[in-house]
Design goal:
five-stranded mixed beta sheet, Elongation Factor Tu (Ef-tu), domain 3, 23 strands, 3 domains, mainly beta
């Protein structure tokens, strides 16, 4: 009878243990965020600096003798074609013609209008000024004539060729613009702190927000990698030997795996070796330690 008694006690203990263990084990399983390894085409870029400059400027001249009443624009203004730029004093203009013995003249328009759209770079007319035919009124920089003057560091010049595509930003304007390298100098020069090569780039989508003299930061595409694996920096662990790892999920276990990284790109860093498309990895393994850790997805 005692034998059965002890068997019954043992069975009860096993049952209790079975109820308790499931509640204990999860405490040793860490919750992590995971993601699936995907491939994408990514652009590797080099960052260069420079400024916006005008390839050439357009002069607008007086088409006849006139007397200016008021100048309606200032240097730096962006004007559109056919905008009024000068108000003409018709009475004084007529009197000048009459004083010169000219009695038969064309009607005088009360305004002078812009011939082109662009930014006024130099204003050469004032209120109350008497103009002669072909006097220069102002010079205009048309958006289509803007370009970039870039300085490419010697560490990047070997990878940048004419025709390379780029995008650029600047603190003087809000949008991101596109461009293309059109010329690269055959000589390098020292700026005092670095050795650079001068390059010129056309602007693909220039508008009135861009002005000569604005500083820019450009990202020039030096290589496009197809089907690249890109991981966020947070997913990569580095040991004291500077060896890099990620935690790869394998049947509920996060296993540390050595990887080889490449260039930094917009969304993270390229993984050259150690991962395959379709595998799952831990997005932020900062709380994990050891070669293998039991995990569950958050």
């Amino acid at each position: 009878m005692k034998k059965y008694h002890w068997i019954l006690i043992a069975a009860v203990l096993v049952l209790i243990a079975g109820l308790l263990v499931p509640n204990v084990l999860p405490a040793s399983v860490q919750s992590v965020q995971i993601d699936c390894v995907q491939t994408e085409n990514v652009d590797v870029t080099a960052t260069v600096t420079g400024e916006i400059m005008a390839e050439h400027e357009t002069e607008q001249k007086a088409e006849r003798e006139l007397v200016v009443e008021k100048v309606l624009v200032t240097a730096g203004d962006f004007i559109s074609k056919n905008d009024p730029v000068l108000k003409i004093d018709i009475d004084k203009t007529k009197q000048n013609y009459l004083n010169s013995g000219v009695y038969d003249f064309d009607p005088i328009d009360p305004y002078v209008y812009a011939n082109v759209s662009g930014t006024i770079s130099l204003l050469q007319v004032t209120d109350d000024q008497q103009l002669l035919q072909n006097d220069v009124l102002f010079t205009v920089i048309e958006p289509k004539n803007l370009q970039l003057a870039l300085q490419i560091g010697e560490e990047n010049i070997a990878n940048i060729k004419t025709g390379a595509k780029l995008t650029f930003t600047g603190s003087g304007f809000e949008n991101t613009y596109a461009g293309e390298i059109t010329a690269i100098s055959a000589q390098a020069k020292s700026t005092g702190t670095a050795t650079v090569v001068q390059a010129t780039a056309e602007i693909k989508n220039a508008d009135s927000s861009l002005k000569p003299g604005f500083n820019v930061k450009a990202k020039v595409i030096i290589q496009t990698i197809k089907d690249a694996i890109v991981l966020p920096y947070s997913a990569i662990v580095q040991n004291e030997k500077n060896e890099e790892y990620v935690y790869v999920i394998d049947q509920g276990t996060a296993k540390m795996r050595e990887i080889k990284t490449g260039d930094a790109v917009k969304n993270g860093i390229i993984i050259q070796d150690g991962l395959q498309k379709g595998e799952y990895y831990v997005i932020n393994p900062s709380s994990l330690s050891g070669d293998e850790v039991a995990v569950k997805e958050k």
